[in-house]
Specification:
Layout (H helix, E strand, L loop, with lengths): L6 H15 L4 H15 L6 H26 L5 H22 L4 H21 L13 H18 L4 H10 L4 H31 L7 H24 L2 H21 L1
Helix pairs in contact: 1-2, 1-3, 1-8, 1-9, 2-3, 3-8, 3-9, 4-6, 4-8, 5-10, 7-8
Length: about 260
């Protein structure tokens, strides 16, 4: 219990990141949880799966806090959330079910490289305006949601590192892409956490691959700081926010590749 308190600062940092960039905070949660379990010797061979499932469960809390903050700021494109939502949820549930069967190292490095490429595109690529958005139909958004949800669940993240670049590429203004991504992280987290809970019950019993105490420790910090991140997201200049997010992606990508 005492060691779990160490997760509260990670929750604070993840909440700030969640509100600022529209991500769920899993990029902070997963390494913090894995380090804690290594330190305490908890969960043995299941510690990575516990970190992933617990991260998604904590993202439910930070994601809802971030969603509420962005909704108050009117930065969510709810039509896109609805179009993406079913694919995100189905993909996340299936991704959680597959996680126990897959070797994670190659996927982590591949995804890290992808993050670096996305960062380069966002930092140096064309600047999109609020007008002239590219129109996509239900099939496109559903398939995109399925892919984003599946990959996000495999990595224990809320999907913002995929959703934000997709929305920016679709010519959604950066601050609205961040807000919309924050809302999209909730169905990913709910469905993914459910998948890890169900899948893990056969191995760990109880709540499966979800650690309730750690969820509360991380979620507390996230709920407190997500609104602050959301306010910063709308106050920072659009291009500065875009480039800051690109640097954030590069940092995360390099960690995944080199870890």
């Amino acid at each position: 219990m005492d060691a779990t308190v160490l997760l509260i600062p990670a929750g604070l940092a993840a909440g700030l990141v969640a509100g600022l960039f529209g991500v769920g905070g899993g990029l902070v949660f997963v390494p913090a949880l894995y380090a804690l379990y290594e330190l305490t010797g908890a969960w043995g061979d299941a510690r990575m799966h516990m970190a992933l499932g617990t991260s998604l469960a904590a993202i439910v809390l930070t994601g809802v806090a971030s969603l509420r903050a962005h909704h108050r700021l009117r930065t969510i494109e709810w039509g896109l959330v609805i179009r993406l939502g079913s694919g995100l949820a189905v993909g996340a549930f299936l991704g959680a079910g597959l996680a126990a069967r897959l070797e994670a190292d190659w996927l982590r490095r591949f995804f890290g490289l992808f993050e670096c490429l996305v960062a380069a595109q966002m930092f140096f690529g064309p600047r999109f305006s609020a007008s002239g958005r590219e129109g996509h139909g239900w099939i496109f958004w559903s398939l995109a949601g399925l892919l984003i949800g599946g990959v996000s669940a495999l990595l224990g993240i809320g999907g913002g590192t995929l959703t934000v670049p997709l929305l920016v590429w679709s010519r959604i203004p950066m601050e609205r892409a961040v807000g919309t991504s924050a809302a999209c992280g909730v169905p990913i987290a709910v469905a993914g956490a459910a998948g890890y809970l169900i899948r893990g019950q056969a191995q760990t019993g109880g709540t499966g691959f979800v650690d309730p105490v750690a969820v509360l420790a991380l979620g507390l910090g996230g709920v407190l700081f997500a609104p602050l991140g959301a306010r910063l997201a709308v106050r920072l200049p659009r291009e500065r926010l875009r480039r800051l997010f690109a640097l954030f992606l590069l940092f995360v990508g390099l960690r995944m590749v080199l870890d």
